[in-house]
Amino acid sequence: MWRIVVEPVPAAAVMAIGAALERFGDSVSWFGDNAGPWQVEAIAAEAPPAADLDVAIAVASAAAGIAVPVITVMPVVERDWLAAAWQDHAAFRVGRFHLHGSHDPTPVPPGMIGLCVDAATAFGSGRHPSTAGCLLALGRLRRRPPGPVLDMGCGSGILAIAMAKLWRVPVVAVDNDGEAVRVTRTNAVLNGVHPLVRVVRTDGYTAPAVRRSAPYAVIAANILARPLRAMARELATALAPGGLAILSGFLAGDAAAVEAAHRTRGLRRRMTIDDDAWRTLVLAKADPRSGAARRCG
Prior knowledge:
Blueprint: E1 2-9, H1 14-21, E2 27-31, E3 38-44, H2 50-64, E4 70-75, H3 81-87, E5 92-94, E6 97-100, E7 113-116, H4 129-140, E8 149-152, H5 158-167, E9 171-175, H6 178-190, E10 197-201, H7 208-211, E11 216-222, H8 225-230, H9 232-238, E12 239-251, H10 255-263, E13 267-275, E14 278-285
Parallel strand pairs: 6-7, 8-9, 8-11, 9-10, 11-12
Antiparallel strand pairs: 1-3, 1-4, 2-3, 5-6, 12-14, 13-14
């Protein structure tokens, strides 16, 4: 395993640099806040070709109008660093959810929903602003969805598990990464919701396993801005009339483009949640039978 670090990156260029790293890594993450520059990282199974990486970052930097940041490539030390990371972080709260690792014996506070998500090799611990924004949005939806729900790009499965625990409805969790699928299945068992959560390895909304359970009352998609825009039509098709889409994984500066791509497909904004430079959108699909988008939420 190899770690690719690009820094310093201005907030406005994070998505461009992240998109450039996608071809080299199996997962891409951002770290930073509004007060200073960001660090963009990728984890890769193989060491990336140095020349190709340099060119990709240089092109992305030029397109974003920034100086080329420093690129560092280093091997990941073979140790249980993921489990150790949990030991450094106590249980924490996000809205209605109490998040903790299996090592933490702290009881779930009364009235809260416990999410046990161990450190793993898939994105989604609840600490990143995009994941936290989705959890906050889920907790604010007041009505139980009348049908199945979908977690597109499930990562660790945290959103799929949250929806299963919150509403006790069937959940389809989808990711194109085999490790994410494995981790989601493990976490679903850990949280006792595996009978409700069906985990599928596939790409996008057109796969038979995804189409079979459509239309969905709620779709959560915590992925990058570019694939969200590209899949807007498929999302709108898979979403039930009156259904809600919870979209995250992008900076506030990219939110207008993400929203516009879905607005052309008939979705309208219901809620906005900002955390640092990150934004979560809740969009509603109109229900022709009622003349409004209010099936759930």
